[in-house]
Amino acid sequence: MAAAAVSEAWPELELAERERRRELLLTGPGLEQRVRAAGGRLPPRLFTLPLLHYLEVSGCGSLREPGPGLAQGLPQLHSLVLRRNALGPGLSPELGPLPALRVLDLSGNALEALPPGQGLGPAEPPGLPQLQSLNLSGNRLRELPADLARCAPRLQTLNLTGNRLDAFPAALFRPGALPLLSELAAADNCLRELSPEIAHLASLKTLDLSNNQLSEIPAELANCPKLKDINFRGNRLRDKRLEKMVSGCQTRSILEYLRAGGRGGGRGRGKAEGPDREEARRKRRERRKRECGEAEEAWVDEASRLLLRVLHVAENPAPLTVTVSPGVGDVRPFIVGAVVRGMDLQPGNALKRFLSSQTKLHEDLCEKRTAATIATHDLRAIRGPLLYAARPPQDLRIVPLGRREAKAKDLVRQLQLEAEEHRKQKRRQNVSGLHRYLHLLDGKEHYPCLVDANGDVISFPPITNSEKTKIKKTTCDLFLEVTSAASLQICKDIMDALILKMAEINKYTLENKDEGSLSDHEVDAIPGQVSDPRATTGAEQAGSAPLVVEQVRVVDEEGHLKVVYPSKTDLDLAAAHVTVLR
């Protein structure tokens, strides 16, 4: 009777055992109640699936600890994803040893400390000897375990963003401690100092320490031989020129500045090194000033001219409006829209960077589309006003991205068949692409959709956009939508992040245009480029046009306003390199 009850409560485990699956995903609205019934832990039967290579348990507010038996029962585990749960304040018992684990994601929990016995695993011998990626972002950590490097000596990616750290443990940067670490992210913490010993991270390529409390950047950072990308924005540096540079200059220029000693000779270089050494430095600074100084000042000036200009509904002769039908309230009630004009996706990999950033937002802020879904459209392919509605699956027709026109019912069924075939071939429960989001439609009698004035469905959230409005290299004016079943504020927060990312991509494109890119004349000739003289600012006259963000109103069927974006409280961006003109 008890075994039957367990099978009924956890059918996923029964199926995984029967089909000898190597991947298991536990999520969804029913998970929280089942975990609560299991005492806030994962069910012990889960740890009797020794073939598992991938385990994900996410979005469960009642999961406080994994429970005993994980390390012993899942020896072949390669990836463990326990994100957006309630793990904390520590891990009891500790996770390791997990000898085959390569990816560990504990982001979005309530972890405060990871002391020995309640952390990631033992240090001797290493509890996580093969771990390559560790994500501890979005917790409440005030310190890292001092033996982290010994526990996971092959770590390549470490994400500590959004914690309460005020320092890194000294052992993290000792020579040879983490010889493979290439990415270190610790933005949005309380870091007060960065040790010069960071130069011992010989493989470091990307460093993000934005929005901390750093006052200095050690000159030794320039000695990291592979460092390509740094972010120190949002720190109040004593060297004000350096503070401007980190907001607008390329990494190479910043490292050259540090290498030359900065203003006042830099930090950590020793005190009295003799007149010859000091004279050599002076000459290097003078030479660098001649060769790079003017260019650096130009970077700073251009960064300060990168603007977002909000065009209010009252100023817009043809504002776009979205009408929400009552039926969508039971399916996916929240939507926010915006029009952005002036994107330059022509040069180099600008379009690829834009699409990649959207994918990353879907994975992170949108929580794999469970919290919200982004859709971006070529504005020239849309005829307003728009209607946000819910339709029966058999009545909703769309031309999905990269596919032929189909009814939503047939599209979902086709995707389900593809997913099942993929599982059989790979012996996996987890699948990729659009198939990952099919469970979000489970039990829905109507599907949400966004329809333009021609009657064409341009969006079917959270599954796909329409091929008709697909973003191309020639796209410069975009309509953005964010929908959610959770809250309106989530939609707004994600729209803020998307527009900020677009501003950064435009900034990067401007800074990195090469001879093969379009000329200014050719860019100006692209149809749809903003040319309204009312939008002209001093920055534009200097040769750098801002992105224009046009307000979009969302109304009910009677025309009563539900939301307008961006409002006065939206786009309240702290990024130093973006200025919002309202």
TrEMBL record:
Keywords: Coiled coil, Leucine-rich repeat, Phosphoprotein, Repeat
PROSITE patterns: LRR
Gene Ontology biological process terms from the UniProt entry: phenylalanyl-tRNA aminoacylation
Pfam family name, one: LRR_8
Superkingdom in the source lineage: Eukaryota
Biased composition (Basic and acidic residues): 270-281
Gene Ontology MF terms in the entry: phenylalanine-tRNA ligase activity; RNA binding
Region named Disordered: 260-292, 518-543
SMART domains, per the entry: B3_4, LRR_BAC, LRR_TYP
Matching InterPro entries: B3/B4_tRNA-bd (IPR005146), Leu-rich_rpt (IPR001611), Leu-rich_rpt_4 (IPR025875), Leu-rich_rpt_typical-subtyp (IPR003591), LRR_dom_sf (IPR032675), Phe-tRNA-ligase_IIc_bsu (IPR045060), Phe-tRNA_synthase-like_B3/B4 (IPR020825)
Residue runs in coiled coils: 405-432
Domain B3/B4 tRNA-binding span(s) in chain numbering: 331-507
Name this protein carries in UniProt: Leucine-rich repeat-containing protein 47
Native source organism of the sequence: Balaenoptera musculus (Blue whale)
Lineage: Eukaryota, Metazoa, Chordata, Craniata, Vertebrata
Primary gene name: LRRC47
